[in-house]
Amino acid sequence: MEKRVITNSRRRRRGLAAASALLGGVLVLSGCSDDGKGGGSGSADADASKKSQEQADEAAAKDTSKARIEIVPKAGATNVGINNDTKVTVADGRLTEVTLTDAAGKPVKGTIAADGTSWQPDTRLQRATVYRLSVTAEDADKRAAHENRSFTTVSPKNSFIGNFTPDDGSKVGVGMPVSIRFDKPITNKKAVQSAIDVSSSSGQEVVGHWFDSQRLDFRPQDYWKADSTVKMKLALDGVEGANGITGVQDKTVTFRIGRNQVSTVDVKTKKMTVTQDGKVVKTIPISAGSPENPTYNGKMVISEKFKETRMDGATVGFTDDDGKGEYDIKDVPHAMRLSTSGTFIHGNYWGKGIFGTANTSHGCVGLEDAKGADDPGKPGAWFFNNSLVGDVVIVKNSPDKTIKPDNGLNGWNLDWAAWKAGSAV
User: Is residue 364 annotated as part of the catalytic site, yes or no?
Assistant: First the structure.
């Protein structure tokens, strides 16, 4: 009897333990249930919170401005062009405030369009500079929209520019080419040349010629027509000139062609004949290069004019045994450059009895003149006062060779076929 009692007691304890374990399991499962499908206060709270958030989001969306701001360039962009690459536009609204500042906080002036839908800087940006842009717009219900952006402009290392002649608004002679010297070598010549347009009011065909990877000149087949207007458009902003090197210029240049003046220096006769619009206006005695230092032959273009200048033989290779210049004249009057290497046509006050009779210079063409460049009656002064940068001076019958076409602005020494062969387009 006692043995059976013990057995029943154990069975009861085991049954209670199993029931307790089962109940505990149910409680655990019930306590962890939060999937929104079950009942209980936890599920109800979650549903209410979710519904409240959805209602708040919906209310905020209804109150959001309809104005949609677009900014170019993209956020964090690098190598951004400095001319036309920065612009703000808005749809379904009007811009109310646009602020562009550099890294130092200095503002850049800009203008919102009259209709309020766009903005651009008034001036070109600086290279290698971080800019920050803050924009505010509003829709028809005066609800505001905001955008902010920062970007970095192209660095000098990753960009190129072209230094050109002649200057905008200048008046030049009929031989003046458009000459562009790039500050970095150009490998994508076709793209760069295609982004430059040179045209004339005369309707003359104008073609570019590459002398090397950094110099590009433009000219027509014959001299520019007198009294015509030449326009050059540089659309180089963003054009890749070499791997990783882009242009930054967006500029239009206009210059005027004057009367047609061409002067011919005959080294044998020691005379220069000046023609304007095909008519001889003056014949001037000259003294050209000596037999030991003859003047180049060929068509040369006046590229610079100086009322007075210093000429030191050491700068162009004419030195004595001590390394000093064979000549050093500090006040040469009425000097006009014909070549990069140092050929000038200029006044001469130190030569006596040589004009029209002897060739004695180191390669320049000399005209009788007065010390101080103050006598307008002298041939040197007359020629200076009646010449333009871009006028043509032709030298013939010299024992020297023809000047190279890239030695100065002297591409006229290439015939038209050879000139066009140097074009990349």
Answer: yes
